[in-house]
């Protein structure tokens, strides 16, 4: 899977458009823009909005932008992945909690 943030950063760097122009047009902070560069799942809406400002067509990088059905499917897939990771983190927390309890009970005996 392509890292959207890295592709976004490369497109901005090669566009010649200054970052202050972008953040002013989007009404976001510079730190938010830099967080986008680090985010492998930058939303396609953000990519399209920035693409208009820097005159870059991100559908060349992400063909699913040009096809709304594929875009919806990709977004649904991402939503499921994020939910799965959230559940994994909760599961891990429960396992760690039980391990700690087990260790305490073991020391008491």
Could you explain the architecture of this structure?
- The protein has helices at residues 4-15, 19-26, 30-38, 44-54, 68-108.
- The mean pLDDT is 89.
- It is 74% helix and 0% strand.
- The termini are far apart.
- It folds into 2 domains: 1-63, 434 Repressor (Amino-terminal Domain); 67-109.
- Helix 1 packs across helix 3, helix 1 runs parallel beside helix 4 (44-54) and helix 2 (19-26) crosses helix 4 (44-54).
- It is mainly α.
- The chain contains 5 helices and no strands.
How many strand segments? Answer: 0
Summing up helix and strand content along with how strands pair, one would put the structural category as mainly alpha
Gyration radius over CA: 20 Å
> What's the CATH C level of the largest domain?
Mainly Alpha
Individual helix count: 5
Q: Which architecture of the largest domain does the CATH hierarchy give at level 2? A: Orthogonal Bundle
Order of helical and strand elements: HHHHH
Low-pLDDT residue intervals, each spanning 5 or more residues: none
Major β-sheet profile:
none
Please indicate the percent range of residues in DSSP E strands (runs of 2 or more): under 5%
Mean pLDDT: 89
Portion in helices: over 70%
- By CATH, the topology of the largest domain is 434 Repressor (Amino-terminal Domain)
